[in-house]
Design a protein that fits this description.
five-stranded parallel sheet, 10 strands, Rossmann fold, alpha/beta, 325 residues, elongated, Alpha-Beta Plaits
């Protein structure tokens, strides 16, 4: 009965026996890699990644049981079958072989038909291994896709609110550890309800996609993150960005949106614009992401109250309040 060729590591210290067994195995269509002692067996196993190991028990220096244990330590998947070959036929020898990590035990000389039958069984094991590994890889890929979809806003293809919460927590941890500033920018499409009422919800979706595209384009650094916070509101997480840099970024973003000149008949400027609220902090252990969002949201509210189409800093708002006091 024919089956796919196997890569077999044959370990025996007697050259004559290796010659006979190698010839038998090659006649059956298998690829044979030879080793004469435990040390060379480990080296060949590491280099060639065989499908099956045929291991003599009696070897110079370390015996086959020792070599099997070392192979099992290397082969963390535990999948590679090991068949012991020995002239010893006592039950205790079989027990020792299985205990050392072997899968079968054949007494030499091994009849060719018996050897072929054992290899057929090992081939089935290898085939099941390949199928299980393929299934595991498919499952891993499916889980990764599911995890990605669970944090993706379908309309804008930006991260969703869940992604925002996760990335903000990560950014806080990073900036806290490095003692770097972190800026958070919340922005809102001005007069978006009027836009929807005038152009319709389908065109409103396209407007949000347009804004998302611009936000994605301005996040040039690896740690910068643009997400859809909810409705027509977006969030930008800007690690390693001081207050002055965040304000420059926010003003440049507003200008970039205006320069696109997307029509908005119900806006005073007749084009789509943004309002943005910014807050900046060098986080410590007391910094709370919820409070950070509240601060940016309060600054966004002030930007809208001052006429929209602008960005405002929570820290400036605080300074003004202290000045009035």
């Amino acid at each position: 009965m024919k089956f796919d060729a196997l890569k077999i590591l044959l370990v025996d210290d007697q050259a004559a026996i290796r010659l006979v067994l190698s010839e038998q195995l090659r006649q059956l269509g298998h690829q044979v890699i030879e080793a004469e002692d435990a040390a060379s067996a480990l080296a060949r196993f590491s280099d060639s990644a065989p499908d099956v190991v045929l291991m003599d028990v009696v070897l110079p220096d370390q015996d086959g049981y020792w070599a099997a244990r070392q192979i099992r330590a290397q082969d963390t998947s535990g999948w590679t079958p090991i068949i012991f070959l020995s002239s010893r036929d006592a039950d205790i020898d079989l027990v020792r072989g299985i205990d050392a990590g072997g899968d079968d035990y054949l007494v030499k000389p091994v009849p060719p038909m018996v050897l072929q039958a054992k290899l057929m069984a090992m081939h089935r094991i290898c085939r099941m291994r390949a199928q299980l590994m393929a299934s595991a890889e498919e499952l891993r890929g499916a889980n990764e896709r599911l995890a990605h979809l669970s944090t993706l806003d379908e309309l804008t293809q930006l991260g969703n609110r869940r992604a925002f919460d996760t990335r903000l927590a990560d950014a806080l941890q990073h900036c806290r550890r490095e003692k770097h500033p972190l800026s958070l920018l919340l922005c809102d499409v001005d007069h978006f309800k009027r836009y929807n009422d005038h152009y319709g919800h389908l065109e409103g979706d396209r407007c949000l996609q347009f804004v998302a595209h611009v936000l994605r384009s301005v996040c040039q650094r690896p740690l910068d993150v643009a997400t859809r916070y909810g409705g027509e509101e977006f969030a930008l997480i800007l690690p390693n960005t001081p207050k002055s840099g965040a304000m420059i970024f926010g003003r440049a973003l507003n200008k970039l949106i205006r320069e696109q000149s997307r029509p908005h008949a119900q806006s005073p400027l007749s084009i789509v614009t943004l309002s943005s609220g910014i807050t900046t902090v060098v986080p410590d252990e007391s910094t709370d992401p919820h409070h950070l969002v509240l601060r940016a949201d309060e600054a966004l509210y002030r930007a809208k109250a001052m006429g929209r189409n602008q960005c405002y800093s929570f820290e400036l708002l605080t300074a003004e309040a202290e000045g009035c006091a």
